[in-house]
UniProtKB/TrEMBL annotation:
<keyword id="KW-0808">Transferase</keyword>
<dbReference type="GO" id="GO:0030975">
    <property type="term" value="F:thiamine binding"/>
</dbReference>
<dbReference type="GO" id="GO:0005524">
    <property type="term" value="F:ATP binding"/>
</dbReference>
<dbReference type="GO" id="GO:0009229">
    <property type="term" value="P:thiamine diphosphate biosynthetic process"/>
</dbReference>
<keyword id="KW-0067">ATP-binding</keyword>
<dbReference type="InterPro" id="IPR036759">
    <property type="entry name" value="TPK_catalytic_sf"/>
</dbReference>
<dbReference type="GO" id="GO:0004788">
    <property type="term" value="F:thiamine diphosphokinase activity"/>
</dbReference>
<dbReference type="InterPro" id="IPR053149">
    <property type="entry name" value="TPK"/>
</dbReference>
<dbReference type="GO" id="GO:0016301">
    <property type="term" value="F:kinase activity"/>
</dbReference>
<dbReference type="InterPro" id="IPR006282">
    <property type="entry name" value="Thi_PPkinase"/>
</dbReference>
<feature type="domain" description="Thiamin pyrophosphokinase catalytic">
    <location>
        <begin position="24"/>
        <end position="114"/>
    </location>
</feature>
<dbReference type="GO" id="GO:0006772">
    <property type="term" value="P:thiamine metabolic process"/>
</dbReference>
<protein>
    <recommendedName>
        <fullName>Thiamine diphosphokinase</fullName>
        <ecNumber>2.7.6.2</ecNumber>
    </recommendedName>
</protein>
<dbReference type="InterPro" id="IPR007371">
    <property type="entry name" value="TPK_catalytic"/>
</dbReference>
<dbReference type="Pfam" id="PF04263">
    <property type="entry name" value="TPK_catalytic"/>
</dbReference>
<keyword id="KW-0547">Nucleotide-binding</keyword>
<keyword id="KW-0418">Kinase</keyword>
């Protein structure tokens, strides 16, 4: 099953509309989906963020309920991402994953960098994904484009406001912050010659 899955967390404020995607819920994200008339393929978590205990009768027909104890080693988001990947979804998009508690945001970034490199973290107006070696295209969908090396990396940037040619960057470098697609260009090109980087895109001021 190669199709996108939108994982909706309790912090999600806007549910993205992705063509051909299925939807699933993380914890109280179940209510966010059902209030919008969207039936998730599964709902995963301990559901401790619900204001009232979850009644199985409130779970939409066709939605598998994966319930876990509140005291566990994994986060609800981690369990949901693992289930999505087990089912063969690609890509997996975790919404509401960059707002709310900073420890949860850092945990989500670590989930991306150390466990599931194909995961996409999104929130209203911003997105984070991991870039492995290869050529990657960015568009004007996001105004601000930043790169953060996860290890010693070599990159080139074309059709960007601040181009680079085979520049070495490491975990301490922050000068690749706040780039953008060059004026009169529709897209920018990022060549990752070696290493791995986080691509952070944002439309926030």
């Amino acid at each position: 099953m190669t199709r996108p899955l939108i994982l909706v967390t309790p912090a999600t404020t806007v549910i993205p509309d992705v063509h051909g995607a299925d939807y699933a819920a993380v914890d109280a994200g179940l209510l966010t989906l059902t209030e919008q008339g969207i039936n998730p393929v599964f709902a995963c978590g301990d559901f401790d963020s619900l204001k009232t205990p979850l009644d199985p009768c409130d779970v939409p027909e066709g939605c598998r309920l994966l319930r876990f104890p509140a005291e566990k080693n994994e986060s609800d988001s981690q369990l949901a991402v693992q289930e999505a990947i087990h089912l063969g979804y690609d890509p997996v998009i975790l919404t509401g994953s960059l707002s709310g508690r900073i420890d949860h945001t850092l945990a989500n970034i670590r989930l991306l960098t150390h466990h599931h490199p194909g995961l996409i973290l999104t929130d209203t107006g911003q997105q984070i994904r991991l870039l492995p070696p290869g050529t990657h295209v960015v568009t004007r969908e996001f105004q601000h484009i930043s790169l953060f090396a996860l290890e010693l990396s070599c990159i080139s940037l074309e059709s960007m406001q601040y181009p680079l040619d085979h520049r070495m960057v490491d975990e301490a470098d922050i000068y690749t912050l706040s780039n953008e697609v060059a004026e009169n260009e529709e897209k920018g090109i990022i060549h990752v010659h070696s290493g791995r980087l986080l691509l952070v895109q944002s439309n926030l001021p």
